[in-house]
Amino acid sequence: MDILKSAVDELRDTIRTPVENKAIYSVTVLDFRFSILIYRLKSSFQKLEIQTVTLYSRFLEFPPFVFKMFLNSFKTSLIIIFLLSTGLSSYATDSQKLDMAAAFQMALQNNKEIAVAQKIIDRSRLELKGASRFFQESPELTWEVKDRDKLNDKNRTDYGGALSFPVEIKGQRKYRKQKAIINIQIAELELDKKKEKIKNRLKELFLENYLLKEKISSIKKIFGIEENLMKIMEIQTKQGEIPRVKLNMIKLEMAQTKEELFKIMRSLTINRKNIEMITSQQIKKDIKIVSGLPGYSYFPNIEQIVNYAKQHNYEMKNIILRKERFLSDYKLKKSKVFMSNVSVALTYARDDNGNVTGGAVSIPLPFTTRKKSDALVAKKTIEIADLKKERKQRQLILEINQKYASIHNFAERKRIYEKEILPLAQQNIEDTKKLYEKGEINFLSFERVWDQWRGSRREYLDILQNYYGQLFSLELLAGGEMQEILKEGEQ
User: Fold this and answer.
1) What is the rounded distance in angstroms from the CA atom of residue 361 to the CA atom of residue 344?
2) Are 15 and 86 spatial neighbours (Cβ–Cβ below 8 Å)?
3) Residue 379 to residues 173, 190, 383: CA-CA distances in angstroms?
4) Do the domain assignments include residue 75?
5) Which residues of 104-136 are buried (b: 16+ CB within 10 A; e: fewer)?
6) DSSP of 391-402, one letter per residue?
7) Closest CA to 100 of 275, 346, 258
8) Do 75 and 205 fall into the same domain?
9) What averages of pLDDT result for each successive group of 10 residues across the chain (491 residues)?
10) How many domains does the chain have?
11) Are 121 and 17 part of one and the same domain?
12) 325: exposed, middle or buried (C-beta count within 10 Å: 0-12, 13-18, 19+)?
């Protein structure tokens, strides 16, 4: 039973071993190990079968061959159940995946920058409550008590008091509320900006993850070709057809391919750590990151992107909101230039003639020009905001045009590689490999075609990274995704 258990455990581990996580893993070696384990499993069943038939035939009246038939059926059922359970458990492991949408939701829930931005919004809403109050300052209560000297052989105590409170005039409360509302809008805009930056960064990381996996796939294909060549050249070297130095050259190429693969695997690990940093959550090793190329079936023209960016670019919206806040601040300060808050008081006093009630109004006189200077400074701030808006708009249009031209450049190069260069390079390497195996061309000719295929594949992946990287940057600059820009441009 111990032999059977060890064989089953080793077979399960072999089946569950993810081949894609190995740096170099020969399929032939995997098949060979699998065959050995199956053989061990069958041998264990045979030993168990002999022992079981001998044991049970002593206690049962059935002939041994009848019980052997029953045991064979039981053995077949056991193997089927084992393989099904292994497959189902492997499927359950592979079903744990992390895509772009799930990672973005994790980032929104766990990212500290998002939490800080939300707290700022909450603080701004509390400031709005304070700005909405009718009395910005607390009422003031004064009370006086006076003890007179004796008058007509009687002591006299007079007392009185006043309740005063400031009253805002000329729409000060309205302007203060406008400032507070704009502060909330600015805080919400900052939150949206942080969300878009996180989303854009995740797009870049998932694109990088996909390209690194493509590079690993290409290198494994290269290593397979090198391995086949090495076997052919070993035979040719033994037969004296080629010198040993050529065999050493292909071995050196294989070693360099392994080293390049290890570098890319390290980059893939760093990519996974960067995704963990953005999402602020550790990603388990058995979770597969699902990445791919985003689809852009239609692309808006430059006029649509510019018009959309003027309304949705975060910097432009921020400048516009700040200008509105400066305008409310200017109106608030202007309302205080000639007459600030008025104080209204209710009075009560007792004298010789009885109780007296009344009221008082306190109006400050505008003998100082300080408030007027504050209003002039606020007005100049509005003019500066207008200039910043014009400068930012010109800069925005220039950056959009540059990125748009760069995207079309990479798009054209991408099309040429996909339609012409890559198919030809693939066809050349397949044809050249056949010619080399037949001995019709030498190793140097094959190596030249092989280097062309490898270089074109690397260049194509670099073009993909630049193309989609510029697209993501343009979307962040415009303040929306290409589908949203195209949809709004068609309306």
Assistant:
1) 5
2) yes
3) 19, 25, 7
4) yes
5) bebbbeebeebeebeebbeebeebeeebeeeee
6) HHHHHHHHHHHH
7) 275
8) no
9) 49 44 35 45 51 46 51 54 46 62 88 89 88 72 66 59 71 82 92 91 90 88 81 84 82 86 90 88 77 74 89 90 87 71 70 67 64 79 88 92 92 91 88 80 77 87 91 90 79 63
10) 2
11) no
12) buried
Determine the structural domain holding residue 41 and report its residue range. 2-95
Please state the pTM of the whole predicted model.
0.65
String of b and e for 69-100 (b: at least 16 CB within 10 Å)? eebeeeeeeeeeeeeeebeeeeeeeeeeebeb
Enter the tokens of residue 106.
């994790």
Residue with tokens 């052989």: 153
Amino acid present at 315: E
Q: Tokens 């919400």 appear where? A: 188
CB 11 within 8 A of CB 41: yes
Residue 141 to residues 135, 138, 235: CA-CA distances in angstroms? 15, 10, 108
Find where tokens 């996996």 sit. 213
Is residue 322 in a domain? no
Count Cβ atoms within 10 A of the Cβ of residue 3 and give its class: 0-12 exposed, 13-18 middle, 19 or more buried: middle
106 and 235 belong to one structural domain: yes
CB atoms within 10 A of CB 64: 13
Cα(103)–Cα(114) distance, integer angstroms: 14
Q: Which residues contact 465 (CB under 8 A, 6 or more apart)?
A: 207, 208, 211
